[in-house]
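Hi P.,

Sorry for the delay on this. The queue was packed all week, but I finally got your sequence through. Input first:
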Amino acid sequence: QTTAAGPDSPDAMTNLLGGSDRRSKSSKHNGLSDTIILVLVDSRNDYLSMLSLPRDLRVKVAGHGTRKINAAYSYGGPALTIRTVQDLTGLDLDHYLEVDFHAFRDMTNALGGVYVEVDRRYYYAGASYEPINLQPGYQLLDGADALDYVRFRHDRNLDFGRMERQQRFLGALRQQAMGWDLALKLPGLIGAFFDNVATDLGTNDFL
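Then the structure:
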């Protein structure tokens, strides 16, 4: 994350990355957008910046008064989430990407996992959520373990710690992607992306 102004470039895109808490593609309910990240990408200048919005941020949600920002998704899906974020930030968003639990696991597995330096043990064995037992150390996280890592918030840092881990994960993914043989990796990556992510991005924008 950076506070520096982004580059003024015609190729720059401001994207809204939303992570919903739907457990499956067949779910009839929108759920909540517990992850909201603004991602500025400028491939010409090799520039990427991310800003996470806390899920409990109190904002005006059109037609519903003042609510937590993640409730916009449950009331009106992606359209209301986009409007809410645009009203809050004053930004014009170019594209929207939505990743639910199922998509996150599938995407991570399709990439062969992601290497992450896990800073400490992440453990939860309560009754309210699925159990988590992730050991510390630099390791290859598969889809299930990566989901545990980016979802965990059972400590004093709560959602702020989770936002930091999500950005750490995306940063690790970007770093590793720079070393890929794209001629071999890209066809499968494109297929995995469009099979799993709800988005208005076209193939050229993805590239």
